[in-house]
Structure formats: C-alpha cells, structure tokens
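dumping this here before i forget
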Amino acid sequence: MPWFWFILMLMTLLLGNSAGASHGLGVWLQGMTKSEPNLLVLMGPMLLVLLLTKVWMVYIGRYVDNEELSFEAAAKMWEQGLNWATVVGATAIISLEPLAGITYRVQQAREYSESLATLMALVPVLLFALVMDSLAYQWEQYVFENTAQSDGAKLEQPHSFLWRRAQFQWLLPVVPIMISCLGVDLLKLVVTESVLERWAIFFVPALSILVAGLVGWILLSVSTASLPKDHPHAGKWRELFREVGAPIRELRILRTGNRMNNAMLIGFLPRWRYVILTDKLLATLSMRELEMVLLHEAAHSKCRHGLKRFLVVISGLALLALAFRVWGFILGVVSTWNAADNANMWIWQIVFWGGVGCMLGLCIGVVRAVKWIWHSTELEADRVACELSVRVRQIEYFVPQPTDVTAWNVRRQHWKSAMELSAALYNLVGDEKRAARDTWTHPSVKSRVQKLADLFAFADG
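structure:
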C-alpha cells in the first residue's frame, strides 16, 4: 500500500487545491461550483466507504464464527477489502477536495499559502486513513480474542498499532509533499514568484536534494534503531563494508513486527551512509545469505546507484516540466488568435489534445525509463556482489593443478556466491508466485536468478 500513497500525493500536486494561490486544476474546479466551502462533499463518500468496510468486516466475521471460513482465508479477504476501500475512499477525498473548497479561504493568506492549503487538503484524507487503521485494529483484536495464543502473547496497544501502520503506509509519502510546499513558501519570501518560475530548473533540483535528505533523516530517526553493539555479527558486518571499499556510518534495524523482508542503503557519502535491515530479514536468512545481501547493498554503494537513480528521476521531472511549459506557451500563443475564426478554433483543439497525448506519452516514457534504470542497477548490484565476495571470503575449494588453482577457485567462489544470493532472494519473497512478479523497482527474482546463472555458470570439467 505505500505505493498507493505515493501516487496519491502526486495526484494531490496535480489537482492542487481550491486556494487562490494554487496553480493546479483545483482553482478551475472551484470556479465551476461558485459556492462557499461545503464539507458534506467530502463527508458523504468518506462515511459511505467506512460503513461498507465495517459491513465487510461483520460479513467475514460471521462466516468465521460459523466455521465456514478459516482465519487465514478470512485475513486475506479482509486485507484485500481494506486495501480496496482505502484506495477508493482516499482517491475520492483527494479528487473532491477542490469541489468541497475547504482550502478556499487560504487565498487570503499571502505567506505560506501553499503549505497551509496542502495541509488543509491532506487533513481529511489523513483522518480517513486513521479511521481505516482503527478498523484494521478492530480486526486484529477480533482475531486475537478468537485464536489460540502462545504463552505470553499480548495484543498490541492501539496507539502502537496506529503508529506502526502510519509509518509503513502514509506517513513517509506525506512528508516530502509538506516539506516541498514549505520550501516553496520560504523561497517566495526571498525571491519573487516570477523569478522562482524563471529559474525553476535550478530551484527544483536544490529543493529535491534538500527534501531527499530530510526524508532520509526522518526515516532513520523515527522508524529505525541502531544495531546493538553487542550483536554477535555487528562488528563483522561493518568490517565487511570497509573491506570492499564501501564504508558506512551505521547499520540500523527497522522494526516491522516481522511483516517485512527488506534491506536498503541510504545516503550518497560514507559519512551519511546507512544500511537498514528489517527484523524479519534478520530472522529469515542464514548468515551466508545475509552476507550476500549486505554485499548487494555494498555493490549499490560502489556503483553509485543511488546518485544515478536520483539524477535520472530529477532529469525526468525536469523534462516533463519543460514539455509542460512549452505546451502552455504554444496554447497561449494560439489563444491570442481570432477566436471567431473556425480554423483557429480547430488549430487550438489540435494543439490542446495533441499536447495531452504527447504529455501522456512522455509520462509513460519517463516512467519506463526510470523503471529500466532501477532494474538494470539491481542486476548490476547482483553481479558486483558476487564479484566482491571473492575479496572477503577465504577460498574453500582446491584442485591439484597449481597453475590453475587461482582462476578455478575464483570461478567456483563466484558460482557459490551466486547460489547463496539466489537462495536469499527466494527466501525474501517467500513463494513462487511472488518470485515470478516484477515490481516498479526490482526485476522478478526468477529473472535475477537466471541472470546470475548465465553470468557465473560453472563446469567442473
């Protein structure tokens, strides 16, 4: 679900809000209503979705109570229904906010108007998310009370459950939006809006770097904890990164309640570079598999994949912004022509709808390019991790021919590391269905394992 909240925040930027300071479609939608703010426009769909979600919970619970449905099957049905309800409800709230006009009065505030308008636009959808998470807690409580628990098991406290859900759902996507809006408002206090628009090609990357740094710091401070110094492998793992020439500042643990299997590298420079490991990852993989996962993260660092990805995303956004400005300029020129001339109207229609098609095509192209970069860097990190393994592991296989021993052992170590990394990847996803599925940021585990097998195929003969 975090992917949905990121898309929703992008949708928020596109629609804008009903404040006069907004440059999104919200101003146009507010102009259609020509009415005062009306909260009922938002409350109606919100209450309807909440009611249907509660009915869905009762419906599933009745089948469970009658022993017609197992708790495992019921949990899957509930999770799917909750996710769909969240998607429909949150999307409806964000889409209807400009019509509701709850940020309309913000236009009277000249300073920090973007931040205030965005905050007010997000309040209804965040309240909706909290109520949906409360329903999720009711389901957890129902399952806890009706299933056999191991000795000492306790139900998670409501505030802890809601905070954990927020961390892994909507909190992280919301933070960059608010920081970006606050940054724009602060820049408006220093320079005029015309200067800001004229030199946006410089301001946008600088603001993006600042936002990325702040979000990374917030993620580290709020959601993770340092790997205990008395951990039996803490020193060995830190030394592992130094040996391969990719030093890090610290290893940190992300507590997910054993719900998430993942490892990630944050930071461009060694002084501010961290590796985050989830609790389930540490409990799932063997020590050799964990070493290969860490070497995979070290490979990202040595190949500067974080910087490359960041530059690709910024370049894509800059290209979209430039294309949008050019399209708007052409539309403005065509609009100055004689509107009474039917030929000019046809030209305007062609430019408008042609621009819509070109912008959609460009968006798809940028997304595909970003996805390709992400996938290619993951495959490269897999390859480099296997090559780095030779530096940090003692050669384990020997052959009688002295002249061939080094090359033979290196090839054997590459193959062994590739198999251990493949095993780690399969253990991370957990089942065959997920192993065959691509994501936006990672190629499928099957394709990665096949790539490793092709690269490091080894024959004894």
